[in-house]
Amino acid sequence: MRIPNLGETELLLPLHGGMFEQPMWQTFLRRLKRVAGGDLAMLSLRTPGSRDELILSDGEPGDVARLLGDTMREGRTYALDELVEGRAGGAYPADLRAIRLRDPGGLEAWLALGADTPLEAEHSSLLTALAPHLRVALNVLASLEREKARASMSADAFRRMNFGWIAVDERSRIVDCDPQAERFLERSGSLRRGPYDRLVPSSPGVDRQLTALVRDFAADQRDRPHALNLSRDPWIDVLVSPMHLESLTGDSRAVAVIYLRGDRSSSADRHEQLVDLFDLTPAEARLAWSLSQGLSIAEAAENHGLTLETARYYSKRIYAKTGARGQVDLVRNILTGVLALA
Q1: d(CA 286, CA 280)
Q2: What is the pLDDT of residue 106?
Q3: Model confidence pLDDT, tens digit, residues 12-65
């Protein structure tokens, strides 16, 4: 087994942890320049299909980035005379060593050492020895960026659907919550942060129900989750569930988590969206929204001042335009479709 020399050992930790620094890999580049005894240590990062380039350096990079390109064979260390051939002019160090590396996901990196004095074969060997470690670091960085992008899209979807969660202790005091729930508490009149961080619904009846549920979960974590409605226009409901995620308990013991789902749009907004989405008439849209809220045709007809015959006629047109085969299907098409993102 090959044992790394002292210079490599000093470099490996900052190399593997460098993507967590700001700027990235600054400690690694500073140590690499010192270990190599040069005047420049530079790392260039590029993503596939993009002209954007991130240049990180310790020392003045000048025009070195112009020399580093796709013509370099991956994993091979190049000297300055191999790179500068055919490139007139430019601010380059007196000598240079550079290597190109690529992550399987497409992220590319060029690691370069520059000096005002001649570099030796050991400098090329150092870059070659660091190459497999830099590949691992690139793989980690690419994976983190992919997960960050996925998390960002998921967070955006949850934000658009107005989902959030709040963890509470046995006295209904807020232990923790996500940013979406925090915004909900700040803007909604249906649920707010009260004195001593107690979670307070605007309805006294819902407050009593919520308090009782939280106390029940404090006594028995095996109890089943319960749903409560906070508002009907706009529609806001919560699911109160026993807490099983210890990582959310914080300094106080959380006994329950409250999942929020709030409609950011009023009924009038939803009527307009249904007109756009399914080509309904305004009267059909109003009836469709009422049916999606669980009202019977008779109840919806009474609410909108329609005769039962007219409501039934409208409902047939609604089902035809939305592709629903019945009221359950209509609820699913309206409440779980793209309208949930509006």
Answers
A1: 9
A2: 79
A3: 999 999 989 988 999 999 999 999 999 999 999 988 666 678 899 999 998 898
- 330 vs 86: CA distance, rounded Å: 69
The boundaries of the domain holding residue 323 are 267-341
Q: Do 205 and 125 share a domain, yes or no?
A: no
Look up residue 74 and give its DSSP letter.
B
Helix residue ranges, H only, the chain = 6-17, 26-36, 64-67, 80-84, 121-161, 179-187, 204-219, 267-278, 282-292, 297-303, 308-322, 327-335
- Domain boundary residue among 156, 177, 194? 156
Where is pLDDT greater, at 159 or 226?
A: 226
3-class SS letters over 155-205: HHHHHHHCEEEEEECCCCEEEEECHHHHHHHHHCCCEEECHHHEEEECCHH
Q: What is the CATH number of the domain that holds 292?
A: 1.10.10.10
Q: What is the CATH number of the domain that holds 207?
A: 3.30.450.20
Strands of 235-242's sheet in order across: 174-177, 163-168, 256-262, 235-242, 226-232
pLDDT at residue 266 is higher than 80 = no
For residue 282, is the peptide bond before it cis, meaning its omega torsion is within 30 degrees of 0?
A: no
Measured in degrees and rounded to the nearest 5, phi and psi for residue 261 equal: -140, 110
Residues 147 and 10 in one domain: yes
pLDDT digits (tens, 9 = 90+) for 181-192: 888 888 878 889
Of 262, 293, 309, the position where a domain reaches its end is 262
- Whether 152 and 15 map to the same domain: the answer is yes
Unique residue bearing structure tokens 């309805």: 203
Q: Give me the number of domains the chain comprises.
A: 3
The CA-CA-CA angle for residues 75, 76, 78, to 5°, reads: 140
- On whether the CB atoms of residues 101 and 131 are closer than 8 A, the answer is yes
pTM above 0.90, yes or no: no
Inform me whether the pLDDT recorded for 342 exceeds 60: no
Same domain, 15 and 150: yes
Torsion angles phi and psi, residue 236, rounded to 5: -140, 125
Q: Which residue has the higher pLDDT, 235 or 167?
A: 167
Residues 6 or more apart whose CB falls under 8 angstroms from that of 308 comprise 297, 298, 301
